Amino acid sequence: MADAALRLTGILEQLLGAPLPVRIRTWDGSQAGPPEAPVLVVRNRRALRRLLFKPGELGLARAWVAGDLTIDGDLYTVLDLLAGIVWERDEDARTLAQSLRDPEFRSAVRRLFAMAGPPLPPAPPREEVRRPRRGLHTKRSDKRAISHHYDVGNEFYEIVLGPSMVYSCAYWPAPPPEGTLEQAQHDKLELVARKLALRPGQRLLDVGCGWGSMAIHAAREHGVNVVGITLSQEQAAYARKRIAEEGLTDRVEIRVQDYRDVADGPYDAISSIGMAEHVGSERYLEYATVLHRLLSPGGRLLNHQIARRPQRDESSYQVDEFIDAYVFPDGELAPLGTTVSLLERAGFEVRDVESIREHYALTLRRWVANLESGQARATALAGPGRTRVWLLYMAASALAFERNRIGVNQVVAVRTPESGASGVPLRARVWGAPGPS
């Protein structure tokens, strides 16, 4: 009798203490759960072993990346439904210990082990990076982490990002966008240029320059001389090719260089777009101090950075296991207030902070749509596991931005001279009419 789905659903609901919000289909073809709900497909018993030996987010992620778990239905809907019982459960070691003392809980665990088969933990998918979190953010470890994320293949990123090749939050028009991703990315680059008040002949340092889009925009549209730095060899090669095709080699230089090794300041402006998340809390003050030193008096920094919500006890913050293992090794998110405080400690005067959280959710949904439509080619280029990593990471991130679990902010900071003349207009930004109540 094919009844694995019914038995599994009963066990999981007993362990979770709540009904499953999704329908389950198992390897024997059986189904159980809400009839109209999207379907979580447990393709083999190995998926259960992954969850048993690594309960929670990382076990689910390993099963997804390996193809042991798939989804029949809308990915966003399933992630949203599962968030409350997986990602948003706040269970500490004490709670788990109490559960293990419950005979019924222990019985459910034993039944799950029996369903899972031989009790050997499956090897993690090859896409996973695991290493001790010590000695972080040395120049060598940063270069290795950046290579893991960005040296996937430029053609893969062309599928995800589209022609703009900008891997950061776009800037969409209001009301909700009908325009293209490419136009929204152009508008974001122009927003950065205007916040930096770029003028012909100035020197711009683009920290974490990616595939060269900001450097090209600043040189072509604003007549600026640009140095772009990245730790990715593949990004640098791609950016140099684009710059040559644009005829901008006399105004744009791309280096494979750590920000700590830049020694040819001063610069009139610095853009750091989606790079500071890689710096780490232990190094952030050093990062801010280096950028302050590289700026001319009166020079501006545009720091575009993802932020997490603050915790009551900041010492309890833990890096997201899935993101650390599969997406951004060694990456860390900080609350906005921490970032602003460290920029000020480094000597900056923070003049403007703009949250563009909703813009990132819109951007990520476009990237997911790009990857879904180009999934066959992406899989051929980077492999099925890597493609599944990016689909899960981007879809889950879109929901996180929409639900205000994380945000993204553009901070304009000035190396204000002793005279106090910041060079910032009295009305730097003009607010529009009030939105709907």
From TrEMBL:
UniProt keyword annotations, A-Z: Lipid metabolism, Methyltransferase, S-adenosyl-L-methionine, Transferase
Lineage top rank: taxon: Bacteria
InterPro entries, per database record: CFA/CMAS, CMAS, MeTfrase_dom, SAM-dependent_MTases_sf
One family name in Pfam for this protein: CMAS
Residues in Polyketide synthase-like methyltransferase domain copies: 156-417
Keyword Cell membrane carried by entry: no
Residue ranges of the region described as Disordered: 116-142
Stretch forming the signal peptide: none
UniProt key word Protease: no
Biased composition, class Basic residues, residue ranges: 131-142
Coiled coil: none
Similarity comment: family membership: Belongs to the CFA/CMAS family.
Designated name of the protein: Cyclopropane-fatty-acyl-phospholipid synthase family protein
Organism: Streptomyces prasinosporus
